[in-house]
Design brief:
By secondary structure, the protein is of the alpha/beta class. The chain is built from 13 helices and 15 strands.
Length: 387
């Protein structure tokens, strides 16, 4: 069994870096070799620990290591052949080498590179736990939905493109300045796809991975947390807890009485809304949690006698049910609105769109030759009957 993976995400500014860093400190104190990784392009993990952290894992203290992922380094390591081909292609069009290399960093490379590092650490099994300080919610969802988006491309477009390149390349390269990618480039893409498919299976396995939502007790943060929870369930990712950070307690005095009242209403909403998840309530600290000592104090305050590596909720977001001769796909989408939910059957593929997020479902064999005939959305649960 590989390391336990915990991914912390939330709206920008809610304190997820502090929560992730303090969690890593807590696990390391329990004699578990722990790596905390920042996948946020605007890295602040080094600020939290009060030390410089680079693209390679750096030991901070006994059992505790930290890493701030460098996208450029990851691309050069894992996608060098493809980037080299694209750079050369853009240079033939008259771009200078620097501009050509810059443009060759295509959309999706950054998300892919972060996942490749995670897969590498998981396979090497050097650590007992990997803690991910993820980017703000929207970027995290892009990161987690990327492997599935690539799956569609690899299944539908990639084989056609590779065959066409093989047939056309001998003639094309003699009559045009634009070269067609060779087999090494295609192998590079296939290798990336295999890696990402494996890491998705790891991140959706609740025995291995857990996603944790961090928020502040205000209305905007609560709304984003509800949306994030729903989207994560749509993609099949396990979420087990919500961290409500920066809560004003009674010691903040009469000046913050109104704030405390408003926060109390939000916290009640959190308790009522996330009944299946564990709720961690973190008070506003008197001092910024910077440096190992303060982060360890923060972790003691958050977890007390709780082991951060525990799984606090094991409910499945997606179930495939066969009952009374009926085949049903059941999705838990607790805060979705029916008006924002659409279901398509396109070319034998089941597509569910929720707001701006769309998922193409790759169904188990027993469901794959069936089409949706009926859908009900009641109390945050979507049942799709297949026939």
């Amino acid at each position: 069994m590989g390391p336990r993976i915990l991914l912390y995400t939330g709206k920008g500014g809610v304190g997820k870096t502090s929560i992730a860093a303090s969690t890593a400190c807590s696990i390391a104190k329990r004699k578990k070799k722990t790596l905390v990784i920042s996948t946020d392009p605007a890295h602040s993990l080094g600020d939290a620990f009060g030390t410089e952290i680079g693209p390679k894992p750096k030991q901070l203290t006994e059992n505790l290591y930290a890493q701030e992922i460098s996208v450029n380094e990851a691309i050069n390591t894992h996608w060098n052949e493809l980037k080299g081909y694209l750079t050369g292609l853009f240079q033939t069009e008259g771009l200078d080498p620097i501009s050509a290399e810059e443009i060759a960093t295509l959309p999706g490379f950054d998300e892919a590179s972060q996942l490749l590092y995670l897969r590498q650490h998981y396979d090497e099994k050097k650590y007992d736990a990997i803690i991910i300080d993820s980017a703000p919610t929207g970027e995290s969802l892009k990161l987690l939905s990327f492997p599935e988006a690539l799956t569609w491309y690899m299944d539908k477009i990639f084989p056609v493109g590779r065959l066409a390149a093989k047939l056309v390349r001998p003639v094309w390269n003699t009559v045009s300045n634009l070269s067609i990618p060779d087999d090494e480039v295609f192998r590079s893409v296939e290798s990336l796809y295999d890696y990402l498919r494996k890491i998705r299976s790891i991140l959706t396995d609740s025995k291995i991975s857990t996603i944790r939502l961090v928020m502040n007790p205000d209305k905007m943060s609560l709304s984003e947390t509800k949306r994030a929870f729903t989207y994560l369930l749509l993609y099949g990712y396990p979420v087990d807890s919500v961290f409500v950070n920066k809560i004003y307690d009674e010691t903040t005095g009469s000046f913050f009485k109104g704030w405390r009242s408003n926060q109390g209403e939000i916290i009640k909403d959190v308790n009522d809304s996330f009944t299946d998840l564990k709720i961690f309530k973190v008070p506003m600290l008197k001092e910024e949690p910077i440096g190992l000592e303060r982060l360890e104090d923060m972790s003691d305050l958050i977890y007390t006698d709780t082991d951060p590596l525990d799984t606090f909720s094991k409910e499945k977001s997606i179930q495939f049910i066969k009952k009374d001769g009926k085949y049903i796909i059941r999705l838990k989408l607790p805060f979705a609105e029916k008006k924002n939910l659409e279901i398509f059957n396109k070319g034998g593929e089941l597509i569910i769109q929720l707001g701006n997020w769309k998922r193409v479902f790759y169904l188990p064999t027993v469901f794959s030759d069936r089409n949706p005939v009926k859908a009900e959305f009641i109390n945050g649960v979507l049942d799709i009957e297949m026939e």
